[in-house]
Amino acid sequence: MIRHLSTGAALVALVAATPALAQPGPDRDELAELVRAQAAEIAALRQRVERLEAERTAAAAPQQGAPVLATREPAEPAPAAAGTQPYAPQLLPPGPAERDVERVRAAAVTASGVSTEWGQGLPVFHSADGVFSFKPRGRIIFDASTSFGSDHEGRNLTTTGMRALRMGLEGTVGTHFFYQFESDFSENEVDVVTAFMGWRNRIAPGLDYDVRVGHLFNDRGFEGSTGSDSTPFLERTVVATAIIPQRAFYGLGIMPRLFWKTGHASLTLTGDRIDGDQSTSDNRTVLARAHWNPIKSNRQVLHLGIWGFDEMLQPGKNTLTRNTVIGGRFNGALRLSTGTLIGGTGTTGYGVELGGYAGPLWLMAEAGERRARLDGGRADFVTRAWSVGGGWFLTGDLPPYNPRLGSFGQPKVLRPIFEGGPGAIELTARYESLEFDDILTPAQGWAATLGVNWYLNSFTRFQVNAIHWNTQNTAGAYAGKDDGETLSARVGVTF
């Protein structure tokens, strides 16, 4: 019966593929011969699939129970098997054996040759020959926040907002070429965020590289390199938000990266963000970062990192005024402020990272300094920041550390609630400090945060942060010492 079904399916595919029905077709004998050949080919393809899957199962048998690593950034080659950690897979380039299996399965399953799989809530499409892959992307992050206890009623606000509302796509062509594009609609406006093309290859076993060109996300610090959908707290540390180029988290340019088994290094050269203004020269930013894991196993990692940037500011694009988040993103009155500060000629920033995890417990410390050069012989405007944070997964899940990029990704939840488990529950805590110095209107502040994260599965989360903050501004509407509390909550889905 299976043979009859295969023959019938082949006949339907053959007729559907005939472009001109009005033209004379093959006679009965020729048609019968074509059907027999198609049935034989399908049988051979099925045998090859079964053989390859059996070989792959046998090869993977000694590794059963070990965690599987997938990088948060879809355009990366898969990391080496040794010492990998679990977090949620997205679109990854398959290895040779997996690629062969997918090619054969796609050819045997559909007449068009396209195969579809479901991973992070959205389909991934593969061409039959394994050359092309394509995946839509999405990110929905909703926040609610209330602040109270301030001496200024204008700071005691309750607000809501979309932290991210993104749609995009990613894909590969062949083994080496990849691309990604995303737009954000969270402020009710279209904002192009990630948009690049890239090329990757292997230099030697255990040594890979890629080069990306386009609108690029910073590789700068631990949380500064972590996506907004993957941070363990609702807002990144003050090191990530204050020790930063004027162009902020994105720039248009080129970024080559080198990867080895225990770390990576990157170098970035960019102009401004995508702004459509070609009437003046762009600011220029050079940024470099490297991280190293001297200890790396399935359940333990030690992370060391260093980074720095230098920025040249053009006339007309040299405003250095800062209003930096200290107690929550969605309270516009709750900031550390410098007051108006113009006449910048350039900035230089640098920072260090130290942390890691052991089993379900993680810890990360970051520190950085930024010096902004002013015209007219004025002293540099100095920003200093540091933070210490950590977390503990009560459910025994491992922290979603990405050893390839030295940042956090989506977690690999051991027992998702959609499969009858409790999900992953994480307790977090952080202390951070920020200071603006060597200007006429200095400012300083700190914040202490306690949080709870509940990951329903690898791409759905609820987060709650309770923050006690302290500020001392000398400029703006809220000058003087002030303190209070902010309670924030988030629900997020990342596809």
TrEMBL record:
Top-rank taxon: Bacteria
The organism's taxonomic lineage, starting at the top: Bacteria, Pseudomonadati, Pseudomonadota, Alphaproteobacteria, Sphingomonadales
Coiled coil: 28-55
Region (Disordered): 56-88
Name used for this protein in its record: OprO/OprP family phosphate-selective porin
Keyword Signal: yes
Comp. bias regions, Low complexity: 57-70
Keyword tags: Coiled coil, Signal
Species of the source: Novosphingobium soli
Record bears the keyword Coiled coil: yes
Pfam families for the chain: Porin_O_P
Signal peptide region: 1-22
